[in-house]
Every structure is written in structure tokens, then in C-alpha cells.
Amino acid sequence: MSEYGTLQDRVRRKSLLNKVMKAEETVQFFKAGMNLGWSGFTPAGYPKAVPIALADHVEKNNLQGKMKFNLFIGASVGAETEDRWATLDMIDRRWPYQTGKNIAAGINEGRIRMGDKHLSLFAQDLGYGFYTKDSESGRIDIAIIEVSAVTEDCGLVPTSSCGVIPEILMIADRIILEVNTGQPSFEGMHDLFTPAKPPKRQPFNIVKANDRIGSTSIPCDPDKIIAVVESKHRDKGRAFAEQDDTSEAIAGHVIDFFTQEVKAGRLPKNLLPLQSGVGSIANAVVGGLAKGPFYNLSVYTEVLQDTMLDLFDSGRLDFASSCSLSLSETPGFPRFFENMEKYFDKITLRPLSIANAPEPIRRLGCIAMNTPVEIDIYAHANSTLVGGTRMINGLGGSGDFLRNGYLKIMHTPSSRPSKTDPTGISCVVPHCSHIDHTEHDLDCVVTEQGLADLRGLCPRDRAKVIIQKCAHPDYKPILSEYYEMAAKECLSKKVGHEPQLWDRAFKMHLNLAQNGTMKVKNWDIKVDLCE
């Protein structure tokens, strides 16, 4: 018996107890080529027992590359599941966001076909059947959903995330439930709602971060449930790097900016609902707010990371709405469970289709803060592809908030190390190698060097401010020279609204590929652009 209760306690729809089986026994239901839908959003709330059993089966029987599936999940999940599946060549298609060394390698080697999408759009398009339309059934063959409990009327209570569970259930033919008794139940924390399809779609009537529009469980057809599996696996939440001088400097610039906006009357004293993306810099910014001058804060975001607990404990955060508890495996989740009573009524977990919907983001006036791979001098941003071709994780929900927020902020180090140069990669470039967010979507760019407020500036003025405020000192003269040269030539030809020289715009990227640094010696045009 678990210290958190038994399977019989958690499954209150007693007829389902007739379908209880071990994870290994569910392997019989799976066939190569199936469309699978998983719960989970970041390494939280994802199924573990059944995916691990399937991986064991493939490995034991040498079925690598022969038993491949199409995976549709709200976002990334734990490495012990999807990353191991990638190692065993069990993934054909993967939508829309992933994390893991092996799955990224499979995508970039062409073995895994990945699609990228704004997360709010992925959720609704999955429910519309757009991603499964070319399969024989046109639906999800098997859904694997981790739950805390099943109610008497067969309502599913998720665990630490909501992801795209409502949309998966809309189009799933068969369902396997993993009932997680290895952790406390999350029942009561969720606000669950399944949006109808147009033309019957209704408004999301959320006017405050703590408003609720749904219920604490999701309706499920019991006849579709083919197995109930008990799981005691904890979420393998991602660890974050310790805060360093760079991330703390970025956090300081953001907090100073908020202070100025409050003094100017453009923000209330308790700011507006905060959105913070994934990663160490985002974690540091929230950590900085936990020591900052702002109280009675609220959060409307897609992930709650470890420093959100610091923000609660500081007495500065009143309430948080999220799609996921994206806490670290340690100390994040243990800390949360030990103090669950303190946090429980201050957090609401919502499905992705609500958490990232443009409608409430725009209405609430969210302050969006996300980290790109690079930004360019005109404030386009690349969130996904290193060098314009190598996929890291995916777009995630950054675009949902950047396009619809009240203030849209991108924060990044001004430079990153290459293999041979500690500042060999400039995160400010003449033109992004891939563009996920256009200049129309960003208000501020922040590095450890400073914050560039771009509101109301034309492209040429934006370029000057970004170079001056945000570029690393090693790259300021290089970027300034490029800009002045581009402006002079383009304006002389009367094509200078946003000056670019396409024979030179990517020279820094080419120099990195050939010489291991973006520090070009000059901007001359030669046969070998990298010379």
C-alpha cells in the first residue's frame, strides 16, 4: 500500500477495477504505426509505467525500428519515456515540442518527423483531427493518460499537468489509464474544460488569473477504457542550472524596467499577470521577483518552475494559473509535496487550450517573458533552430504570449561560448537564421548588458538601441559597422526602411560554422565569405 492510498481508493468508478492489469500486459494492445496520445506537459503528468514497459518489450525482442509510433503530447515529457523511445527508434512522428538529447538527435538526423506549432493552436487542431487525418482511422488509436483519481461518473482527475488531455479524449478510440498512487492526489487543483468546435465554440470567461470556468475532472467514456494500470513513478522534472551573474543581471534589468513602468503609470503596483517560459533564465527572473519590490502578484502562464515556490513563500505571489507544475525532480517536487496544503488553493492547473489561449492572455494583459536562441538587430527572434537548421526543442507557447501579451519581453545572454571562443556566439545578429517571432511581436529585448525598450521605434532606431543596450562588447563594433554600412547603401537606393545586405547578413553565422566564432574580421565580400 502506498502512503498516499490504494488503487481502490483512487478509482471510484468501481467497474473499472475489472480492467486493472500490469503495465507489461498492455503491450498486447499496441501495433506499429499507431497514433498515440499521451498526457503530460513538460516533464510533469505524463504516463510512465506503460511507455517504459513498451520500451522494455522492444529492447528485449530486438524490435528497434520495427515498432514505431506517432506521438502527440502537449509538450515534452520525461527522458525515461520519449528520449528512451527515440534511442530505441520507436518514434516516427512527434508533435509539437520535445526535450532530450536522443530525440533531438533523431529529429536532426531525419529518423523522427517532428512538426512545430504554437501550442494553443496545436491543442485545438489536435481536437479537430488535423494531425491524424491521413491515418486509417483518422483518430488517435490509443490514449495513455496519467490520473490522480477517477470519479464515480468516470471523470478523469489529472496529476501535475493538464496538457492536451481534453483534445486527446475527443478523438481517442481506446484509453489506458495510469493511476499514480506514488504521489499525493491533485484532485481539486484543476480547472478542466473541453472547448467545442466552431461554430459552437464559446468565450473563455476568464477575467482574473484565479477565475474558474470548468470542473475538477474531465468526462470520459468508460467503454473506451481498455486497461487501468497502477503507477508509482514520480515525474522526472528537469533540473536547472544555478543562477549565475548573467541570469541575475538580466533579472535585475527586468525588475528595474517594471519599477519604471509603475512610476510612469503604465503598470499597476502589483504589475499584471506574469508569464514566464521554461529555462534557467526564466527561473532566475522569477527568483529575482521573489526579492523584488512588488506584492500581490498573479501569474497566468504555462509552466510553474521552482522559483515560483520562492515567489509564493516570499508572500509576494497571491495566485498562479498554469498548464503544468514543471518542477525539478529534486528539490522541486519534494518541496511542493511537503508543503502541498500551503500551495494547493493558490494554484490552478488548466488544459493547454485554455492556459495558452490568446483570448484570456489579451484580456488579462499578461507580461510575457521568454528566452530565444538569438534575436537580430530589428527584433526578430529565433526560438527553435540553431544555425537555422538544427532543432533544439520547439516553439512551445512563447508565440501565444508574445503575440497577445500586454508587454512582450525576450531575455537572453548577449553571447554564448563556442568550442574555441568563450564569447564565440553572439545572441544579437544582423538577421536571425530562422524567425519564429517577428519584429511586430516584441516590445523589449534584455541581455545582461541592458534592456532595449523598442516600443514606438522604427526599425532603424530599434537596431541602434539593441546594439547599444544588448550586444556584447566584443560584438558592438562589428554589429555597428554592419548596420551603418547597410543603412548607407540601402538608403542611397531608397530601400532603407529596414536595411539589410543579403550578401553579408549571415556572414557571422558562416564564420561560426567555419572558424568557430562569430567575430568576423571584416565585412568585405569575397568568394569565401568566411575569410
Describe the structure.
With 531 residues, this protein is an alpha/beta fold. The chain folds into 2 domains: 225 residues, Glutaconate Coenzyme A-transferase; 230 residues, Glutaconate Coenzyme A-transferase, CATH 3.40.1080.10. It is built from 17 helices and 26 strands. The strands form 7 sheets. Strands 1, 2, 3, 4, 5, 6, 7, 8 and 9 form a 9-stranded mixed beta sheet that branches. Helix 3 links the parallel strand 2 and strand 3. Helix 5 runs parallel beside helix 6 and helix 15 packs antiparallel against helix 16. The longest helix is centred in the middle third of the chain and has 19 residues. The radius of gyration is 24 Å and the shape is globular. The mean pLDDT is 95.
Produce a short descriptive summary.
With 531 residues, this protein is α/β, with parallel strands linked by helices. The chain contains 17 helices and 26 strands.
Task: Give the helix/strand layout.
Blueprint: H1 7-10, E1 35-38, H2 49-60, E2 69-73, H3 79-87, E3 91-95, H4 101-108, E4 113-114, H5 119-127, E5 140-150, E6 155-158, H6 165-171, E7 172-180, E8 218-219, E9 225-231, H7 245-263, E10 274-276, H8 280-289, E11 297-300, E12 303-304, H9 306-313, E13 317-322, E14 324-325, H10 332-338, H11 340-344, E15 347-349, H12 352-355, H13 358-364, E16 367-370, E17 374-376, E18 381-382, E19 385-386, E20 390-391, H14 398-402, E21 407-411, E22 415-416, E23 425-426, E24 428-429, E25 444-447, E26 450-453, H15 459-470, H16 476-492, H17 507-515
Parallel strand pairs: 1-2, 1-5, 2-3, 3-4, 5-7, 7-9, 10-16, 11-13, 12-14, 13-15, 16-21, 17-24, 21-25
Antiparallel strand pairs: 5-6, 6-8, 17-18, 19-20, 22-23, 25-26
Helix pairs in contact: 3-4, 5-6, 7-8, 8-9, 15-16
